[in-house]
């Protein structure tokens, strides 16, 4: 193929072929003319991606599509490679997730709002809300000899203030993936400082990401069941 291209250029009179060390060289550069690929669509939901694939809206001659769960917040669908070993990347789904920065210190009021708006309701979240929402003084004390336990003065009744132990560790389910699937629960270290200020540290080594990607794959397998059975779609995660 390379020799044919070189010879074609030589025939046009625009280049010469020279042999050096049993290898053929052109005196002019060759540029590959690549097959065109489409611009990628972008949606914000898994249902949008599934609806696009079911519709077969873009019929480019490829019979199969592959869906790749890239991360908990990104899924792409593409074709087999073409003659230039490039793929048609049809559509990308990117999750919209609320903003919450782990390892960052929030004041008690902002942290309280974040707990309610960026986390799924569960038992540990409600316990944290009761502690953070009823703090009566700025000081946070270390208790015990384990280097972990903390306590604050908090309102525990209609007119009662007492020393309340800060829950730690806690199991929470932040909104970190597509809302169509279950948000994985994972362990967090909950810490407080004088102010009072609060923060969460992830403590599951990133295992939640694998759980979220598994949930996405299962959702798409159900949404695209007919296409999968007909051999038109393959899903990997």
UniProtKB/TrEMBL annotation:
Highest taxon, organism lineage: Bacteria
Protein name: Phage-related protein
Species assigned in the record: Bacillus benzoevorans
């Amino acid at each position: 193929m390379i020799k044919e291209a070189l010879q074609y250029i030589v025939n046009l009179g625009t280049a010469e072929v020279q042999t050096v060390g049993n290898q053929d060289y052109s005196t002019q550069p060759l540029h590959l003319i690549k097959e065109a690929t489409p611009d990628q669509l972008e949606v914000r939901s898994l249902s949008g991606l599934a609806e696009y694939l079911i519709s077969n809206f873009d019929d480019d001659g490829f019979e199969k599509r592959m869906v790749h769960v890239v991360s908990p917040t990104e899924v792409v669908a593409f074709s087999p490679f073409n003659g230039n070993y490039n793929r048609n990347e049809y559509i990308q789904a990117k999750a919209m997730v609320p903003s919450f920065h782990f390892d960052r210190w929030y004041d008690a009021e902002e942290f309280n709002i974040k707990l309610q708006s960026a986390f799924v309701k569960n038992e540990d979240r409600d316990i944290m809300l009761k502690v953070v929402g009823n703090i009566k003084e700025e000081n946070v004390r270390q208790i015990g000899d384990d280097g972990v336990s903390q306590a604050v003065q908090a309102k525990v009744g209609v007119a009662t203030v007492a020393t309340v132990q800060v829950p730690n560790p806690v199991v929470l389910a932040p909104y970190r993936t597509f809302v169509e699937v279950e948000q994985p629960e994972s362990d967090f270290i909950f810490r407080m400082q004088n102010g009072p200020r609060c923060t969460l540290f992830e403590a599951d080594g990133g295992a939640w990401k694998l759980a979220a990607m598994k949930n996405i794959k299962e959702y798409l397998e159900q949404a695209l069941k007919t296409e999968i059975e007909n051999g038109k779609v393959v899903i990997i995660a």
